[in-house]
Amino acid sequence: MARRLLLSFAILVFATTASADITVKATNKLQIARHQETIEVPATSLDALQPQNVPEDKALDMAAIEVKDSTGKEVLSQALPNMIIFQSDFAASETKTFTLSLGKGHKHLTVDDYKAYGRFVRERFDDFAWENDRIAHRTYGKAVERGEGLISSSIDIWSKRTNKLVIDRWYMLGTYHLDSGEGYDDYSAGTTRGCGGDALWGDEKLWPARGFINSHMIAAGPLRVEFALDYDVFEFNGKAAMETRVISLDAGSNLDHITVSYTPFGVKGALTAAVGLRKMPGDTKDFNGEHAWLSKNEKMEKNGGMQGVALIVDPKQLDKQAEDDKNDLLLLKPSGPHNLISYWTGFYWDKSGQFENYDAWKKYVDEASQRAASPIEVEVAK
Q1: pLDDT, tens only, 151-192
Q2: For burial by CB atoms within 10 Å, which of 30, 91, 197, 295 has the most?
Q3: Cβ count within 10 A of residue 179
Q4: Sign (positive/negative) of CA torsion 217, 218, 222, 223?
Q5: Strand order in 77-80's β-sheet?
Q6: CA–CA separation, 148 vs 115, rounded Å?
Q7: How far is CA 354 from the centre of its chain?
Q8: Could you tell me which of 141, 163, 137, 160 has the C-alpha nearest to residue 150?
Q9: 46-87, pLDDT tens digit by residue?
């Protein structure tokens, strides 16, 4: 009898402490299909997953959340500090439902599960390198000034023709300037803005930061790599400023999302920022003012082929096009007390087989600008 009472009590306690499932309805509001689209569910919408009778100050274990589609198949997800993300394909105007529950999460991820990754790289001169299953980049820390004499906050391109993650092996072998069949570094960013580097704009010229001085990893895969870079005080039109970049790259995308905040010192009036693409001999340029994107087609430097590079900005922040001797630029009006700009930048290499031609790339860029303006709509119900 006592044993039965104890068992009943245990069942009762379990029933009162178990968490509820959450249903997420995700809707594509656009009349275009979306492949491998990232769905973001904010942490503030996940309270129902917290078991009952848990102390209020105990945070929800985001890494233990499991996601399943409408057929009950588990979907790979990733916990970030302020949200959980997962991906799915959507037809035009399609709505899908997913179930989130508190389980054990992904305890046994393999290398093959990782489609996005990045890290601070001390093997060279304080690079930060990042990649996904389609593209790769690096940018420069302050140590490159001592090691190579390069003063630059440019964004470099590493052209890939494999969906494998490569930066660790390429750094380890030191062969990233040679194409062994997976791709290589065939891009001289130097002191240009490279592929989407930013700067302040004043007196009709660029005022860029130097190499970054601190890096902070926010998320390191498997679906999104995200990190912040702090830049030291730099000269701005006779005054001074600082900046912080936050860069993220999702699996399946040829475009990074970059958010920059500027802190000016002794500067009166509104700021103007610039984001740019390096100029190359013989390159061609396309601009779409309505959807606020700039795309260029240029020759690879060493091993033949062509690459397309692009910028997508918020139409509300776009001021106008501009240029200097090294870069084609879009000028932006930062917003808010932190002088924020938000934009997307990326590239493709024709030898990667990712796009049929440059026209297909421009179509991708134009649709990406529409997707950026209309993220997947998320509704959460208990």
Answers
A1: 999 999 999 999 999 999 999 988 888 888 899 999 999 999
A2: 197
A3: 16
A4: negative
A5: 34-42, 83-90, 77-80
A6: 32
A7: 19
A8: 141
A9: 988 877 666 665 678 888 899 999 999 999 999 998 999 999
As given in the structure block, the two tokens for residue 209 are: 């930061």
176 φ/ψ sector (left φ>0, alpha ψ -120 to 50, else beta): alpha
Instruction: Mark out the alpha helices in the chain (DSSP H runs).
Output: 2-17, 143-148, 167-173, 358-373
Judged by DSSP in three states, 62 sits in helix
Structure tokens at 81: 């500090």
Distance of CA 4 to the CA centre of its chain: 55
What residues have CB less than 8 Å from 360, skipping those under 6 apart?
none
- C-beta atoms surrounding 226 within 10 Å: 22
Is pTM, for the whole model, over 0.90? yes
Bond into 222 cis (ω within 30): yes
Length of the chain: 382
Cα(13)–Cα(52) distance, rounded to whole angstroms?
A: 10
Contact 262, 252 (CB under 8 A): no
Cα distance between residue 150 and residue 378, in whole Å: 45
5 Cβ neighbours under 8 A, 6+ residues apart: none
- Structural domains in the chain, CATH included, are 19-108 (2.60.40.1180), 113-373 (2.70.98)
Residue 38: closest CA among 108, 116, 109: 116
Q: What is the pLDDT of residues 215-274, one digit of tens each?
A: 999 999 999 999 999 999 999 999 999 999 999 999 999 999 999 999 999 998 999 999
Which residues have a Cβ under 8 Å from the Cβ of 72 and sit 6 or more positions away?
Answer: none
**CA–CA dist 220, 80 (Å, integer):** 9
Q: Cβ neighbours of residue 190 under 8 Å, at least 6 residues apart?
A: 150, 152, 154
CA distance 379 to 218: 25
Residue 35 is given by DSSP the state: E
Task: Report which residue type is found at 365.
Answer: V
Record the tokens describing residue 75, joined without a space.
């979907």
Q: Is 120:128 a contact under the CB 8 Å cutoff?
A: yes
